[in-house]
């Protein structure tokens, strides 16, 4: 047999062919024109001939085989073999696979339309009775099959068009459906320039211009207005700036995608300021936050300045409070504020950077440090100096374990939380615990703050633990663990694995990491901090692949598998175990919950789930319609779904369809993940030389709320041929017993036959011990074809009735004969 060549050689040859093809295509030219390179086309049949196989067998990875198989359609069946974890195809099988592959679909690229105006720039000058515009359009005309020239709508017919050019040359323009339409036979990128005038009346009302334009992605609008005392408004503008240029106001704007642009001018009325002092009316919102060691105050002032303007404002600072920040209306920090002592009181001066009038909004953040274990703390509020009237509200929130209680209030009233303004409620990220209102200064509020001891909280939790373990007959165990967890403060996850375990690979939040060991021999898994979005904490995955070697499985024995023990609470875990096919499992034990097929003596009676990687494609199709099984018509897919299902009776939390579906995905992808790690190039690890079995008996186990507990699974097993031998011997023993008792069985049969002649005598005989024994034999015979479990039960009860009848039957009373019954009846008649 010719030595097998690897698939890499085939792919390399194909790559060289593509390279040569690319070089040849660069040098191929049409002799007639010399402008365009010629095209080399190859048919699908010729392309298949390029993949000549001079080997008898071709090896493919499972992933490569699936990609090729996907090109043939779901109904095509290809015979193949699996050797050393690779799919092996003969030359004839590989050619058959190529023959059945679908030809690649080639879809022509369809442009979105005949043309596209990508950008428009309008430059205009407003006069007394008209406005003149110079417009530039960036135009893209797509190449496509058409029977006539494309028609490009530029401007409505209502404007007076003066000049229109395409790439600097006069353009062909026509009027159609109320629009000036450009038409040309050119394709590609072009520039269209045009000038037009539109009627405007500058002195009539605010609506100066209303122009219909084509919709473009980028629209720039520049216009000069012969006035400086106007306020400009363009409703469609996302950005607008106005600058003065001599007697003109230059307006530059960026418009949203629109088909209409409007220009409005509002005359600015300049009033002479009265030389009177400004009147300040103040509304205050105070948020008091009770923290561990301080009382933080966030105060928002809304000033209404009348009669004149002000450039700054002065406020009295409450005694004992320190100002931390001062922020303006747009939350921009005001840095040049200052404090000074005036007549024994601290005064805060807040500048506004210019004269201000009307509504003014700013915020002050201050705090007062708590001493010792808390105590009483006073707050009499910030007071605006020279304010005509000041009213305000207070809201109190708690941000720590300290408790706040109102012990004194003067000229300030406690109100219901619902009566507080929404502006104050929205200032807090937590629910407010108290609300107050005052109408004037001075007022005083006294709070009693009591500190309580804070208890440590769980800052790291594993929401879900998904584990898949494969036990090989030689005692080797390969496990893949995926922890879905949330972490806000833990640096490492301490993991206790079985003795002599080796971690093969580790991924934390999708990135490869390196584990370490502490002095106690526990593995230290580095963690990342969860991303916090608002009140929610995002979870991340920790994926661990580890291996350890144990004693090989003898003919008969018991085994114990350990679940990875973490120092973090696990909310829910699912554990899938692949066990060798050549063994029969008698009983499963341990401190984990077993699915139905693994409970009691069901494993002994043959209840189980056989998983083969040859049927992985069917499993994947079953997963695609997992949540809607009623839509499945394929019987094989329905059977695969039933086989992959699990049911845990005591713990319904692990029966969630989504969790089970994710677990099945991990089971199906186990071998592929092993192959993925093999492909990392780490060949010096012993585990990479281990072949993962392509089939096994799959059982699932579960547990909820696992905290500092070593979970384990124990099971008893025997070789299948030993189990078959014991079952055969047991059956032969029963046949021997029946043969030894054949005469009594024959007598029972004759009695039963006689009893059948009389229904009443039949029930009398059936109630006797002999009759019950016959019924047990008949029941065992019937259930041998229906239920093996009930068959064993009937046989055991029959043997118990035969060997130890006193445990089942009561003391027998001899039934009366027919003559005795007649005598009793005559005696009763005489007595009457």
Task: Write a brief caption for the model.
With 832 residues, the protein is α+β, with helices and mostly antiparallel strands. Helices cover 22% and strands 41% of the residues. Strands 18, 19, 20, 21, 22, 24, 25, 27 and 28 form a 9-stranded mixed beta sheet that branches.
Descriptive notes:
By secondary structure, the chain is an alpha+beta fold. It contains 15 helices and 47 strands. Strands 18, 19, 20, 21, 22, 24, 25, 27 and 28 form a 9-stranded mixed sheet that branches. Helix 6 crosses helix 7 (635-644), helix 11 packs antiparallel against helix 12 and helix 13 (769-783) runs antiparallel to helix 14 (788-803). The longest helix is centred in the first third of the chain and has 21 residues, at 7-27. The radius of gyration is 45 Å and the shape is extended. It starts with 6 loop residues before the first helix and ends with a helix. The relative contact order is 0.06.
According to DSSP, the number of beta strands is 47
The coarse overall form would be extended
What percent strand?
35-45%
How many H/I helical runs?
A: 15
* Oligomeric state of shown chains: single chain
- Secondary-structure-derived class: alpha+beta
N- and C-termini, Cα separation: 107 Å
| Largest sheet descriptor | 9 strands, mixed
Radius of gyration: 45 Å
Low-confidence stretches: 1-39, 681-689
Q: Name the average pLDDT.
A: 78
The percentage helix is: 10-25%
């Amino acid at each position: 047999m010719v030595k097998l060549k690897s698939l890499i050689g085939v792919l390399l040859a194909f790559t060289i062919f593509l390279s040569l093809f690319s070089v040849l295509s660069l040098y191929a030219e049409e002799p007639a024109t010399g402008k365009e390179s010629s095209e080399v086309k190859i048919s699908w049949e010729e392309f298949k001939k390029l993949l000549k196989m001079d080997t008898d067998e071709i090896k493919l990875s499972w992933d490569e085989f699936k990609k090729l198989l996907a090109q043939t359609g779901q109904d095509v069946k290809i015979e193949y073999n699996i050797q050393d974890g690779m799919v092996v195809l003969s030359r004839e099988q590989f050619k058959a696979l190529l023959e059945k592959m679908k030809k690649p679909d080639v879809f022509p690229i369809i442009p979105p339309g005949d043309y596209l105006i990508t950008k428009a720039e309008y430059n205009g000058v407003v006069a007394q009775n008209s406005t003149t515009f110079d417009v530039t359009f960036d135009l893209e005309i797509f190449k496509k099959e058409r029977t006539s020239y494309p028609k490009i709508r530029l401007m409505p017919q209502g404007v007076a068009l003066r000049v229109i050019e395409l790439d600097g040359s006069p353009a062909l323009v026509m009027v159609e459906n109320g629009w000036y339409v450009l038409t040309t036979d050119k394709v590609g990128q072009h520039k269209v320039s045009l000038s037009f005038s539109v009627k405007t009346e500058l002195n009539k009302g605010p609506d100066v211009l209303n122009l219909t334009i084509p919709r473009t992605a980028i629209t720039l609008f520049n216009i000069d207005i012969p006035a400086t005392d106007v306020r400009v408004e363009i409703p469609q503008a996302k950005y607008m700036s106005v600058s003065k240029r001599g007697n003109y106001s230059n307006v530059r704007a960026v418009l949203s995608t629109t088909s209409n642009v409007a220009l409005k001018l509002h005359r600015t009325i300049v009033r002479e300021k009265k030389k009177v002092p400004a009147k300040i009316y103040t509304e205050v919102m105070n948020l008091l936050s009770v923290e561990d060691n301080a009382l933080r105050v966030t105060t928002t002032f809304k000033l209404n300045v009348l009669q004149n303007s002000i450039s700054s404002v002065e406020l009295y600072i409450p005694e004992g409070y320190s100002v931390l920040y001062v922020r303006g209306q747009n939350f921009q920090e005001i840095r040049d504020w200052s404090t000074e002592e005036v007549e024994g009181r601290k005064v805060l001066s807040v500048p506004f950077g210019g004269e201000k009038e009307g509504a003014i909004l700013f915020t002050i953040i201050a705090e007062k440090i708590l001493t010792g274990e808390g105590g009483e703390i006073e707050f009499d509020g910030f007071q605006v100096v020279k304010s005509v009237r000041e009213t305000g509200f207070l809201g109190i929130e708690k941000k720590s374990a300290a408790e706040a209680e109102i012990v004194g209030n003067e000229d300030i009233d406690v109100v219901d939380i619902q009566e507080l303004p929404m502006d104050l409620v929205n200032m807090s990220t937590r629910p407010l615990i108290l609300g107050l209102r005052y109408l004037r200064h001075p007022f005083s509020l006294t709070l009693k703050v009591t500190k309580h001891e804070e208890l440590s909280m769980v800052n790291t939790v594993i929401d879900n633990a998904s584990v898949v373990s494969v036990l090989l007959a030689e005692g080797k165990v390969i496990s893949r663990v995926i922890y879905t967890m949330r972490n806000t403060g833990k640096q490492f996850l301490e993991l206790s694995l079985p003795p002599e375990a080796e971690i093969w690979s580790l991924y934390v939040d999708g990135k490869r990491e390196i584990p370490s060991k502490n002095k106690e021999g526990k593995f230290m898994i580095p963690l990342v901090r969860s991303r916090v979005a608002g009140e929610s904490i995002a979870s991340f995955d920790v994926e661990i692949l580890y291996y350890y070697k144990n004693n090989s499985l003898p003919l008969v024995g018991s085994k114990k598998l350990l679940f990875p023990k973490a120092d973090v609470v696990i909310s829910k875990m699912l554990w899938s175990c692949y066990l060798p096919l050549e063994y029969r499992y008698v009983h499963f034990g341990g401190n984990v919950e077993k699915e139905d097929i693994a409970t009691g003596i069901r494993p002994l009676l043959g209840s189980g789930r056989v998983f083969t990687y040859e049927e992985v494609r069917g499993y994947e199709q079953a997963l695609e319609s997992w949540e809607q099984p009623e839509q499945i018509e394929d019987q094989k897919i329905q059977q695969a779904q039933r086989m992959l299902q699990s049911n845990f009776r005591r713990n319904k939390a692990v029966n969630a369809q989504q969790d089970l579906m994710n677990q099945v995905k991990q089971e199906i992808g186990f071998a592929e993940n092993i192959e993925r790690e093999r492909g990392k190039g780490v060949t010096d690890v012993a585990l990479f030389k281990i072949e993962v079995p392509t089939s096994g008996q799959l059982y699932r186990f579960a547990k909820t709320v696992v905290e500092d507990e070593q979970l384990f699974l124990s099971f008893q097993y025997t070789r299948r041929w030993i189990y078959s031998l014991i079952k055969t011997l047991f059956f032969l023993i029963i046949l021997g017993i029946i043969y030894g008792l054949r005469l009594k069985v024959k007598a029972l049969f004759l009695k039963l036959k006689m009893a059948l002649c009389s229904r009443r005598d039949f029930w009398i005989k059936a109630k006797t011990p002999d009759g019950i024994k016959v019924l047990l034999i008949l029941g065992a015979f019937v259930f041998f074809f229906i239920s093996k479990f009930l068959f064993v039960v009937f046989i055991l009860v029959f043997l118990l009735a035969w060997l130890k009848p006193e445990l089942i039957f009561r003391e027998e009373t001899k039934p009366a004969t027919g003559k005795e019954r007649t005598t009793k009846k005559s005696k009763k008649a005489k007595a009457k």
